[in-house]
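Example record

The entry below shows one chain as it appears in the dataset: sequence first, then structure tokens.
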Amino acid sequence: MIRSPRNWKLSRVFAGLFLTGGIAATHATTYYVDGTNGNDSNAGTSTGAAFKTCAKGFSMLAPGNTLKIAGNNTYSERNLGISSKTGTSSAPIVIDAYNTNGDPNQRPIIQGPHNPVISGSIHGIVVSHSAYVTVRNLRVWYQDCAGVEMDSCDNCTTEFCETDFTGSSGIRSTASTNITVRYNTVKHAVHGGYQECITLDNVQTFSIYGNYVGLRNSNPPTGDGGEGIDTKVGSSNGSIYNNVIDQICRMNIYTDAWDQNASNIDIYRNVCQNGAGDGLVTAMENGNTSVTLRNVRIFNNVCTGVKSGVYFNGGGGGSAHQVDGTKVYHNTFDSVSNGIYFSNGQATNTTMEYNVAGPNCGNSYFLMVNSNTPTAAQLPAGTLCFNNLGTKGWIAHFGGNNINSDPLFTNAGGTPMQYMLQSTSPAIGIDTDAGGAGASFITMDFNTQDRGSLRDAGAYEFVPATTTLKYEAEKLVVPRYWSQAGGAVRNLGPDSGLSNSDGIILDSNNVNDYVVFTVPGVAAKTYDVRVGVKKFPSRGVFQLSAAVAGASNYGNIGSPVDEYASGAAYTEVDLGNWTPATTSDKWFRFLVMGKNASSSGSSYNYAVAVDYIKLIPQ
């Protein structure tokens, strides 16, 4: 983790702004920007009278307003700002895209002046001292500092954006609360050498999920930043999950208390792959004897082709590096130098259990204290390492019952699903104490399948060929969606009528809108496909189709489904048999085909609500 010169330090003076700041909006207005056909002297309130520049559009935003920026355009702009605008949950501020040519993949590009990018202090988009702001569906390229910066904000979201070639972070939030960073692509970040690809600095309550972070596979020209995802400077009470960290030269996912106490961070179902740095890392670098990082839980992750799967970092300034209560459970490591590398002699009360290190690891477990392999008496207080499995051995005096054996991966389907278990794997069923040591929170595996009462070591639960697979929609990654009317993809819950009390809804008012879910680890066999839906008076008609993840050649599954009902109804729809040709992750697309003539009562009367996807082997 790197401290840059804090040209943003003024962010910490935001007390009271969420209650008093902002411009009152008399009514919700949608403004439009079209770089080709617009004019800043227009009213901006329709596509035919759009503004020309994003700067003009940003200047009009107030609580409840939406700014729609035309795709298939490149806007040579930066420092696009929202300051002291206090939206609410019912009147948020939204910056989104629309496309003049009807192609949902042609998002607008907000492009800085320097190619190649240089290191500077000017961001692409800056949201400061504001609340309930969402930045969505934008490409932000070649910006001298961060692509999207949220400073001293509350309840703000960056989603479905792409940043590329930024001098600092692709996405960064500082001194904020209730921050969500989801379903973004962050590439080639940190060309100036400071900060990280996704940075949360002093953020209280956060979710970082479904992002791709990658292609920072060489050291920055200056400085030593460039980590993948970093939560630091007291960031607490958050989750980091369902992310792919790919080809990152430094630490992939990093939690560092730095100079403020930090606690309660869950890191799960992430993939760290193909980089020179360590995978999942905890630290307190600052050296302050009164600061501790507490209660980090690392579980159900897959790390392959990185330096170490999990790294307890004891480096940094000073001699104090307190980390306490870290739990490392049910992770899978392969093609790494060390499954777990423990070099922090002040990481107390650490438990490492039911992890799997594959046959291509340099070591299953490697521990150093003060650069020496310790004796049992030298271990930090409360260190436990037991019931793990690997071919290169686990140090016995940590607690015992570690298994020196090949875990027998299937090696099918590519990363990460190649690390699923064969039916004869010695990892199966060894978690007889349901996780032990406080691991009862691990109820599902990497593929979101139920762990059951006798759980398997590693990130994956072995699933017999005849087992029904059920995927809760809210647990799946949404790699893409499209809503021509500017609707969102959002959670349905809490709703006791839904499986797991939650689901996902696509706000839609047009034919050909869609939402796509990644269903992981689907084997090549025949399934009866069923979908749980919530019917309602304002629902549309969808067609389900599937393709190999990342492909575009979708094949329909069953007939169109009408979700209209006169009142709320929870239904499982049987779409018949489907036989995928290959073993791989799959994209399931719900495409809006129309609506029932009676569907009404909402601004989104073509909406599609998905509770779960069920695959029943035949």
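Notes for this example: Residues 182 and 597 are 35 Å apart (CA to CA). The radius of gyration is 24 Å.
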